[in-house]
Amino acid sequence: MVGAGDVATRRIASLLDVDADVSVVAPDATDSVHEWAEAGRLRLSQRAFEDTDLNGPVLAFACTGDAQVNAMVAELGRSKGVLVQRADDAGASDFLVPAVVRRDALQIAISSDGQAPTLARILRSRLDAWLPRAYGDLARLAGDFRDQVKETLPRQHRARFWLRVLDGPIAEKVFTGRLAEARRDMKRALADDRPDVPVRGEVYLVGAGPGDPDLLTSRALRLMQRADVVLYDSLIPRAIVDLSNPQAERIHVGKRASRHTLPQDDINALMVRLAGEGKRVLRLKGGDPFVFGRGGEEIAQLAEAGVAFQVVPGITAASGCAAYAGIPLTHRDYAQSVTFVTGHLKQGELELPWPQLARTGQTVVFFMAVKSLSGICEALREHGLAENWPAALVIEGTTIRQQLLVGTLADLPARVARETIEGPALLIVGEVVRLNETLGWFRPNPDTSDSV
């Protein structure tokens, strides 16, 4: 390595990761290079480059800030049969260095053919952040059982077996850290594997978040892309549904206030039936499945039927919409607690603990509150909150169609009545609503946002 600046340091770090024998020649070096040298991980010569430095190496990297020195190293390398990579001129290099994402034995290399190395590094960083670390454990598990699979299964069955292992329940156990269970299931799968044995299905109960596709969790996206069937609610944006496996069957099951395409019991039965057919069923729900999403009821039915399932939490609408509206749910000066309640009417009535909700020093978030907005505001006033107590309705929060209507318990119902509201909406009540004036940062439709 000729040079020991920032570029050289990045190259050296990658080389040390694969236990390369590294010698560095440079008058000055970064702190990292000095630390590696002191630890005996490389040899450092703090001086100018000399011709004899290329006597022996297999590869050389010219990473100085001087183009003439880099060119001299490249020319000398060719005369001595040493392949040289120039950090400042990919076209004059004998080889290129890809950006690499490593998960133990699993490696992904990204190259721009020297045209855009910064872009390759950006993609490497994004893949590195997205690709679960457990893929290294999965690759190691496959390696540990590879010989046993060869000895146990006929060649024509191996591809099907590995597909079931690497993209099925065993892999999911690895991803969730249950390595001992995964190894046990591998042994059992090898002993029981037969073409006539049906594949066991499972259900993924996944929270899709409040609406912005960027707010999906990495696990949610991974499971969405491996599903065979997608059951989705009315409030799930098309942009999120479209991130699911394009080959998957998609079934709209409704679940919108007062308009249910399928009753809840039918949805539960449908999940059980599809999983019984060996399918991977994605139950995609808005927000978080366990926050007014009836997720508990659905997995109770699955558990009773003996169907394997996993639950992936999502960013609940309360936190997502509040954040995008610039309304902190808690604040040391205004709200020391937050309460989530449903504004959904039961037989035309709102059965809520109004004395507890109509207190100062807290934030109250009402889900599904548009139809009952007037009754909520009136009840809170009747139980002690002032008429000018702040309240806000966040409509289609976190999306480009977000609309924010801000007012008080006295005037907000009238403001909302003037609007045509089709999408999901969330009511936030509390002094923190006033902070939107200074903290509101996401205003995709400034002309439609009202202020206090």
From TrEMBL:
Residues annotated as catalytic: D233, K255
Top EC group: transferase
PROSITE patterns listed in its UniProt record: SUMT_2
All copies of domain Sirohaem synthase dimerisation, residue ranges: 134-190
CDD domains reported for this sequence: SUMT (cd11642)
Pathway: Porphyrin-containing compound metabolism; siroheme biosynthesis; precorrin-2 from uroporphyrinogen III: step 1/1; Porphyrin-containing compound metabolism; siroheme biosynthesis; sirohydrochlorin from precorrin-2: step 1/1; Cofactor biosynthesis; adenosylcobalamin biosynthesis; precorrin-2 from uroporphyrinogen III: step 1/1
Coiled-coil stretches noted in the UniProt entry, renumbered to this chain: none
Gene3D superfamilies (UniProt xref): Cobalt-precorrin-4 Transmethylase, Domain 1 (3.40.1010.10), Methyltransferase, Cobalt-precorrin-4 Transmethylase, Domain 2 (3.30.950.10), NAD(P)-binding Rossmann-like Domain (3.40.50.720), Sirohaem synthase, dimerisation domain (1.10.8.210), Siroheme synthase, domain 2 (3.30.160.110)
InterPro entries associated with the record: 4pyrrol_Mease, 4pyrrol_Methylase_sf, 4pyrrole_Mease_sub1, 4pyrrole_Mease_sub2, CobA/CysG_C, NAD(P)-bd_dom_sf, Siro_Cobalamin_biosynth, Sirohaem_synt_dimer_dom_sf
Transmembrane segments: none
GO molecular function: NAD binding; precorrin-2 dehydrogenase activity; sirohydrochlorin ferrochelatase activity; uroporphyrin-III C-methyltransferase activity
Keywords noted in UniProt: Cobalamin biosynthesis, Lyase, Methyltransferase, Multifunctional enzyme, NAD, Oxidoreductase, Porphyrin biosynthesis, S-adenosyl-L-methionine, Transferase
Reaction(s) this enzyme catalyzes, per UniProt: precorrin-2 + NAD(+) = sirohydrochlorin + NADH + 2 H(+)
UniProt key word NAD: yes
Annotated Tetrapyrrole methylase domain residues: 203-412
EC number, UniProt record: 2.1.1.107
Sequence ranges assigned to domain Siroheme synthase central in this UniProt record: 103-127
GO biological process per UniProt: cobalamin biosynthetic process; methylation; siroheme biosynthetic process
Similarity comment: Belongs to the precorrin methyltransferase family.
Name of this chain's protein: Siroheme synthase protein
Organism in which the protein naturally occurs: Salinisphaera shabanensis E1L3A
